[in-house]
Amino acid sequence: MTLYRARDRASAGVPLGGIGAGKIELLPNGVFNAFTIQNNWSKPLSGGADYPGILGYHLGLRVRRGSGPRARWRAVLLQTAPIRSIPTVRDIRYRGVFPRVEMEFIEPSLGLDVRLEAFSPWVPGDVRDSSLPAALFTLKVRNRLASPADIGFLFIGRNLSGKWCVGRRNRVTDGPEALHLDFLNVDPSERDVRQGAVRVSFAKRGWPRTSWLESWNAVTRNFSFTPETVSLEAWEHFQAGAPLPNLTPRRTVQGENQELCGALCAERRLPGRGRAELDFAVSWYFPKHPLGHRYVSWFRGPADVARYALSRKARLGGLQGRIERAVRSLPFPQWFNEALLDNLAPFHAATWLVKDGRFAFYEAPQACPLMGTLDVGFYGSIPLSYFFPELERSLLKQFARAQRLDGYVPHDLGKNRLDMPSDGTTFHYWKDLNPKFVLMAYRDYRWSGDRAALQALYPRIKKAIAWTLSTDHDGNGLPDNEGADQTFDLWGFYGTNAYTSSIFLAALLACERMAGLFGDRAFARRSRACFDRGSASFERELWNGRYFGEFCTLSQLNGQWYASLLGLGYIADPRKVRKALATVLRWNGVHSRHGMVNSVTPDGRLDHSNDHAKNVWAGMNYAFLSLCLSEGFPRTKVLRQARKLWDNAARRQKSPWNQPDTVDSVTGRYVFGDFYYRNMAIWSIPIMAALRDGRTARTLRFLRSPR
Hints:
single chain, alpha+beta, Beta-galactosidase, Chain A, domain 5, Glycosyltransferase, 9-stranded antiparallel beta sheet
């Protein structure tokens, strides 16, 4: 697991949440941040300049040894970010790997080992348990000393329901097995998508004394809500050693200058050298999504979610552990297996799963909030198709329904919506979208065996490939680019281009296979004839003895990557394919210590013609390296390039979960994108390896059905 200390100032944490349900993050400095649970994927609730997280969400711990007037309580906030003069822990060790976190709080004066573990389930094939609007926590405390100790744990939370504070109300429910604190809104507006509720639940097992403070106004000064002015009333009781007063004023916010906080406390006696654990959960329910949430079909509210999640916590945690161990058992270095897990973070951070079952990834929820972006999904949907075929079917069906009358498949399904498809971000129709749609449809069939789903798409596939054939204006059997009309939308390609053409050739091979599957002999013959003409042109016009194309681009053989992944054969002479890969490894791999650059000039210099050419795209790196493995290049040599990407994300930028599309090739700085969809293409590497390696194949079979 990636280890950070509080002083590392990591800007992101493991996203805790569910597919389509939004997420919360707990950062290495102990603060909560970047909530997207309120249908606000593109505008996370986050800290500002004066505090690195969401003020009003805090954890605390206290300890007392002995009894009598000389016994004193020692209380600290379990964070390092300062709040007034309140004591905080000295340091935090944060270990995270999607979808779980382990935090060790360092404060020697307590005489305790204090750990917090958190996770949200991600279970291949199980959409419901992978879509829970909840994060599950376990506090673990060990007494390092022989003397017994009284300990207490405090959770402070803030009511954030609705865009406006007026109408907010907290509510405590004290049940026989758990103590709950709800953050509600008494007058929800149908137009306010941030209306809903959050529940914090403490399981009482092993903690005989619980108490609460249902609500107080945390604002103490007009127009000021900062770490220096915030009121943490519950903390005053807690640090004094008193239980919280169990007050339930049922206060409803009626004025703007109010931020309503509430708190729960659990206490127990810890014997010398003894241990204790406290399970708790944060669940949420924000049903005002414009299209409705899928989770409203399964749960009636946050209380229902909390009951379900806490009752299954042990089973889900054990299952999550088995999934993680299986990934770690893959025959790759451990850093790479962690990278496999951490690149799945967009599942919880950047997805919609709506009431009628429609699903989509954001391209990038903040930087580019386009839904399902097809050219990016060609790469990023690989683990989606492999592990959640039900959701992938939904996504591709939406693109099929959105196909234009002339056969053009749109670039995306809409901006923060699923019903307004757009043609792309540039002037011209994109030439890579239709063949990518074709290949994704065939891929889904290959991996799921769902012939009926493929048959439903088949007329759209034929129409899509016909549209691409119509863009061949010079008669060489390959589409003609007209500028920035493909995934590199800052980079103009003209005429016959290796990137677009290689993907088109692979799509023709897939069309031939699909036509054979459905007994469509005429289309099979036509696809083969088009492939033969196009493949000959591809070699004649683009091969220069070292690589395909005018410049040496990382993505020149991405069509061959898909063809190899799906067992379609070669789009060009295998000897030329391998020589081009060797050239790219040698040339594109030397210009940056942060990954392989997208383009190199014919004399081996970095291509500075545009920002896409000169920089590093992780998703393109993974596609290229996967193809290298399939062509027998040494695994150590291939993974050496992938290690550059990981070291930059995990060590230099300290953000292995929230990764971009574009990395500056000189500095390693993140340039564009957040929780970027394309980067999940890293999963093509083990999937490609499984075609030759029985051990990898067995592990992936388990992962596809881990129950």
